[in-house]
Amino acid sequence: MNEKLDKVYQEVKQVDTGINSILVPILQDTIADGNRHNKRMFAVAVVSLVVVAIVTIVSLFLIYKQNQKYQEFLSQFEFETTETVYQDTDDSSVINEGIHINK
Question: Can you name the residues that pair with 85 across neighbouring β-strands?
Fold first, then answer.
């Protein structure tokens, strides 16, 4: 009886060893693939952040330059604003704004 149990034990041990010899390389490959994907995702995230930063900086610079050109254009004119307030007896008020451009 003991011999039969030893024989069964040896067969189970061989199957277990065979499974381990198959599963361990598969798991190692899976871990290596996961690490490669993580590195690629990190690289894509870094590149995306750099692109967003470059686009933001260039956009802000272009907006700044455009505002300077607009201010130079507006500096050709003198603006004068007057406000006239008429108050009626019923305590309501009307505001009249006028802009006069002088060359």
Answer: 95
Could you report the per-residue pLDDT of 5-52, keeping only the tens digit for each? 777 777 777 766 667 777 778 888 889 999 999 999 999 999 999 999
In the block, residue with structure tokens 């507006």: 74
In this prediction the pTM is: 0.51
Q: Give the 3-state secondary structure of residue 20.
A: helix
Say which residues have a Cβ less than 8 Å from residue 102's Cβ, sequence separation at least 6.
Answer: 77, 78, 80
Residue 87's contacts (CB-CB under 8 Å, 6 or more residues apart) are 93
Residue 51 and residue 46: Cα distance in Å, rounded? 9
* CA separation for the pair 60, 68 (Å, rounded): 12
- In the 8-state DSSP scheme, what is residue 96? E
Percent of the chain with pLDDT over 90: 37
Tell me how far apart the alpha carbons of residues 32 and 40 are, in angstroms, rounded to a whole number. 12
